[in-house]
Specification:
- InterPro entries: Aminotrans_3 (IPR005814), Aminotrans_3_PPA_site (IPR049704), Class-III_PLP-dep_AT (IPR050103), PyrdxlP-dep_Trfase (IPR015424), PyrdxlP-dep_Trfase_major (IPR015421), PyrdxlP-dep_Trfase_small (IPR015422).
- Its cofactor is pyridoxal 5'-phosphate.
- This is Aminotransferase class III.
- GO terms for molecular function: transaminase activity.
- By secondary structure, the chain is α/β, with parallel strands linked by helices.
- The protein folds into 2 domains: 145 residues, Aspartate Aminotransferase, domain 1 (Alpha-Beta Complex); 244 residues, 3-Layer(aba) Sandwich (Aspartate Aminotransferase, domain 2).
- It has 14 helices and 15 strands.
- The strands form 3 sheets. Strands 4-10-9-8-7-5-6 form a 7-stranded mixed β-sheet, sandwiched between helices. The chain has a 4-stranded mixed β-sheet with strand order 1-2-3-13.
- The structure holds pyridoxal-5'-phosphate.
Length: 396
């Protein structure tokens, strides 16, 4: 059997039609497959590789840490320098009230931890989440996911979850002294990039404060410069009680985190002790990689260049088949009339050496979320490919 057949046979599958590209090398914005064909990567591993694939400083940090130690002991027992230094760096770049970092292995685990923390802190069990939201695929995270199609096969899920429309003031009256937390994506990514109104988020923040409800914001896709700010919530002038991090947090290595005020996080130390535990969360190599990536992000001033790159995409992507473009920095959704058109354009783009995909709850929109290191030349080339792909499929 060749590699592709072995992949289909022995690697557990999640869709009947996986992309099945065999990538052998990735550098910067470019992926190379086994036949030597190159692809411009417009999705960055779904908002993971914000500083590009295999940035030399990230690779160097991984190698250096691998020479020192790998796994030592379950999370939270030893003083492990990569965790400590990275936690300090994150805290230094967050509002003062977000000063305690609980490292996990993934975004979904960060969601789980934050939901547990909100219950412990408030002594309440009800959670408000939003329609068309995505916070991960484990059962707690799935319980707050905002789409019945994806949830239904796994019932019974967690009780006490209320799903409400995003950006709608009706939510305010549902937040009461029985609500443990309100959890939302700062920008709804998998819905196809929908941002909240400033006034709505402010009202939500105020209502949470009034009722002693924790406001949890999922920054897993929007963190680390993706939206043109280090953290997505910065654009809205509010500070959440808990944030969720993942994806770019590990610089290409698996890492997640939830972040809260230390006094809240300390709930996990008693009644019961070990209130949330993980063997591998905050793996030293992942923390070393993540910290190196964050240093690159800041030192190379990548965030400051996001707005002009977003503007260039928007300026170049004009075509009658494009119905709308929604964007917040380099998190962009290009909308077509249907999933069928979108899929055809995406497939043609891949044939032509450009990798993109659609959104979980926004199947008629194409994802543009490249490494933030993408150059203007690469953006021009990418847009040329997208426009010619649209022309070709429309003629057919
Ligand atoms: C907004 C958001 N939250 C949570 C997650 C879950 O992260 P993970 O896949 O690392 O569990 C994702 C993953 O796509 C996400 O986009």
């Amino acid at each position: 059997m060749n590699q592709r057949q072995l992949f289909l046979q022995h690697v557990a599958q999640t869709s009947p039609a996986p992309l099945a590209l065999e990538i052998v090398k990735a550098r910067g914005v470019i992926l190379e497959d086994a036949a030597g064909k190159e692809y411009i990567d417009l999705i960055a591993g779904i908002s993971v590789c914000n500083v590009g694939h295999c940035h030399p400083k990230v690779v160097k940090a991984i190698k250096a840490q691998a020479e020192q130690y790998l796994h030592l002991l379950v999370y939270g027992e030893f003083v492990e320098s990569p965790q400590v230094q990275y936690a300090k760096m994150l805290a230094d770049h967050l509002p003062e009230s977000l000063n305690s970092i609980y490292f996990t292995n993934s975004g979904a685990e960060a969601t789980e931890g934050a939901m547990k923390l909100a219950k412990r802190v408030t002594g309440r069990t009800n959670i408000i989440a939003f329609e068309q939201s995505y916070h991960g695929s484990t059962q707690g995270a799935l319980s707050i996911l905002g789409d019945e199609y994806w949830r239904n096969a796994y019932r019974p899920l967690l009780p006490g979850i209320l799903h409400l429309p995003y950006n709608d003031n009706a939510v305010l009256e549902h937040i009461t002294t029985d609500t443990a937390c309100v959890i939302l994506e700062t920008i709804q990514a998998e819905r196809g990039v929908h941002a909240p109104l400033n006034s709505w988020l402010t009202a939500l923040r105020n209502r949470c404060t009034e009722t002693g409800t924790l406001l949890v914001m999922d920054e897993i896709q929007t963190g680390f410069g993706r939206t043109g700010h280090l953290w997505g919530f910065e654009a809205f002038g509010i500070v959440p009680d808990i944030i969720l991090l993942g994806k770019a947090l590990g610089g290409g290595m698996p890492l997640g985190a939830f972040v809260a005020r230390k006094e809240l996080m300390d709930c996990f130390t008693a009644n019961p002790v070990l209130g949330h535990i993980t063997t591998f969360g905050g793996h030293p190599v992942s923390c070393a990689a993540g910290m190196a990536a964050m240093k690159v992000l800041l030192k190379e001033k990548l965030i400051q260049k996001v707005a002009e790159k977003e503007a260039l995409f928007r300026q170049l992507l004009h075509h009658p088949a494009i119905k709308a473009i929604r964007s917040r920095g380099l998190l962009m959704a290009v909308e077509f009339d249907s999933f069928e058109t979108n899929k055809k354009v995406i497939d043609r783009c891949i044939e032509k050496g450009l990798l993109t995909d659609w959104f979980l709850f926004g199947a008629n929109s194409m994802r543009i979320a490249p490494p933030l290191t993408i150059t203007k030349k690469e953006i021009r080339k990418a847009c040329e490919i997208i426009l010619s792909a649209i022309d070709e499929i429309i003629v057919e």
